[in-house]
Specification:
- The complex is a heterodimer of chains A (407) and B (69).
- Chain A has 407 residues and is α/β, with parallel strands linked by helices.
- Chain A is built from 17 helices and 11 strands.
- In chain A, a hairpin with a 5-residue loop joins strand 5 and strand 6.
- The longest helix of chain A has 18 residues.
- Chain A starts with 25 loop residues before the first helix and ends with a helix.
- Chain B is built from 2 helices and 5 strands, in the order E-H-E-E-E-H-E.
- Chain B has one domain: Alpha-Beta Plaits.
- By secondary structure, chain B is an alpha+beta fold.
- Classes of the chains: A alpha/beta (407), B alpha+beta (69).
- Bound molecules: flavin mononucleotide and iron/sulfur cluster (SF4) (2 copies).
- The site of flavin mononucleotide has 22 residues of chain A, from strand 4.
Chain lengths: 407, 69
């Protein structure tokens, strides 16, 4: 099992969000960045658009479009900062909420004007410190709009946007049907804005330093930095920050370098894709497109050559199958079947037609759930079947290349 | 073209819609409706699609205009 070790900031490729003292204190934050300028919603929207800021929670959707969809509703919205981070291989949102929470809370204020309810949705473990910080900010007159803390349960799908909106409305944190978008009408009928905490932290930086400054990092098409959680076969796993387009090898070097020869790297997390362990590969949508991948929420897992990629994927698929919110038939039935079929292949219980069956099941579940959990799971498995093609062939003859590599 | 939308959180998977609309839907391994194509409804099948929507016991099946869904 790959787990994320405590994720101290400090190693970097290009530090911005995590460039300060990272003590989480209000006084150090104000000393470093000063007060947030007062901006109207239109100005915030314009800056987000000029900066090209996209969501850091996985889908990479432009922030300004969501802001404008919610504003078009003409009713006071519910605004949610999403710090759930249900993904086990991700530690960046927790790191951000621990080391630079004031940037997140600044960003939340920028999108909270006129809202009927403003929420920070985060795991319970961080609430005490966040509560104290929110009180201090109110006392210092920083937060025009009061912020409510709501507990994000420890479940993979709890951070999906409609699940977050449901939890905030006092219901179970499970996803809802998408016929009506929550930016139009969320659980209580109000337009609902859900943004990843890192997206909001970038917005707080843009409000201070400008769209041009933001664009000085990353690529022209994918501007800015992102937080990456690097784990697996690296010397010192943790959270690093880099501009989009950073070389995969530089991210791994920033996490202490590979601790063993690598065979592949999982990029984008449990809903992401396997890519070759090529140091020069740019970590950006454009760079990862040929592999059907994307940076997603910045999860990078390095796979050592003596571990079997099919086994590792089967393990993740088993985990994901256990995380289905028991609602949608194709997902509830399909993901466990998909995981067990892949496990048969991984554990050398080969039957003819097994790879084709994995492929069929992955296609069958895609697009057939209230949320994109089945789609993401299918994407991961499709990418594994491509990236570990040689392993699949070996497994069908009863051999495992990773076991062979161990000698 | 209008499209079929299934609310998967409501669908009970007994496959009534696939019986009523075999041109567009098949039952998957577990009885849930799976699209033969991409869920868009050609005009000629619109009446049958409406009937399937009306008869869905779970109110899970909808016809949506192209812009949404
Ligand atoms: C199964 C699933 C789990 C998700 N979990 C999270 C999460 O833990 N945190 C998060 O910010 N976004 C998560 N997302 C993405 C959210 O639905 C949503 O796109 C995001 O919070 C929007 O914020 P952003 O545009 O700032 O990225 C998840 C999506 C899916 C399908
Ligand atoms: S698609 Fe799966 S994970 Fe998503 S809501 Fe439906 S059952 Fe839950
Ligand atoms: S008729 Fe309705 S409940 Fe039955 S399978 Fe079709 S969509 Fe699901």
């Amino acid at each position: 099992m790959i787990s994320v070790a405590e994720a101290p900031p400090g190693r970097q490729v290009q530090l911005r969000l995590l460039a300060g003292s990272n003590d989480g204190r209000l006084d150090s934050h104000l000393a470093q960045h000063g007060r947030l300028p007062v901006l109207e919603t239109n100005q915030v929207m314009g800056m987000a658009r000029d900066a090209g800021l996209t969501g850091r929670g996985g889908a990479g959707f432009p922030l300004w479009r969501k802001l404008s969809a919610v504003a078009a509703g003409g009713r006071a919205p519910v605004v949610i900062a999403n710090g759930a981070e249900g993904e086990p291989a991700s530690g960046k949102d927790r790191a951000l909420l621990t080391y630079a929470p004031n940037l997140v809370l600044d960003g939340l204020q920028l999108v909270a004007l006129g809202a009927q309810s403003v929420v920070l949705y985060a795991p319970a473990a961080g609430h005490r410190a966040l509560r104290e910080l929110l009180d201090a900010r109110r006392a210092a007159g920083l937060d025009r709009v009061p912020v409510r803390l709501v507990t994000a349960p420890d479940a993979f799908v709890a951070g999906e946007e409609s699940a977050a909106a449901a939890a905030v409305a006092g219901r179970g944190a499970v996803p809802a049907d998408k016929l009506v978008r929550i930016t139009e009408s969320g659980p209580g009928g109000a337009p609902t804005l859900v943004q990843n905490v890192e997206t909001l932290a970038h917005l707080a930086m843009i409000a201070r330093y400008g769209a041009g400054w933001f664009r000085a990092a990353g690529t022209a098409e994918e501007p800015g930095t992102f937080l990456a959680t690097v784990s697996g076969a690296v010397a010192s796993p943790g959270v690093v920050e880099a501009g989009y387009g950073v070389a995969l090898g530089d991210l791994i070097a920033a996490a202490g370098g590979a601790s063993a020869p690598l065979s592949a790297v999982l990029v984008g997390g449990y809903h992401g894709g396997w890519v070759p362990a090529e140091g020069a590969l740019p970590v950006s949508r454009a760079g990862l497109m040929p592999y059907g991948g994307s940076p997603g929420a910045g999860v990078i897992v390095a796979l050592p050559r003596n571990a079997c990629g099919l086994m590792e994927t089967a393990r993740i698929a088993g985990y994901l199958a256990g995380q289905v919110a028991g609602q949608c038939g194709p997902c509830v039935n399909g993901l466990p079947r998909l995981a067990s079929t892949l496990t048969d292949l991984a554990q050398l219980r080969a039957r003819p037609g097994l790879p084709a069956e994995v492929d069929r099941l992955a296609r069958l579940v895609t697009g057939r759930g209230a949320c994109r959990h089945p789609d993401g799971t299918a994407r991961l498995i499709h990418s594994a079947m491509r990236a570990f093609e040689a392993d699949v062939a070996a497994h069908l003859t009863g051999r495992c290349l990773a076991t062979d590599a161990r000698g | 073209m209008n499209r079929l939308h299934v609310d998967w959180t409501a669908c009970d998977g007994r496959g009534l819609c696939a019986e009523l609309l075999p041109e567009l839907l098949v039952e998957d391994d577990w009885g849930y409706p799976a699209p033969r194509g991409d869920m868009s409804v050609p005009p000629a099948l619109e009446p049958a699609a409406r009937q399937a929507v009306d008869r869905c016991p779970a109110l899970a099946l909808r016809l949506t205009a192209p812009a949404s869904s």
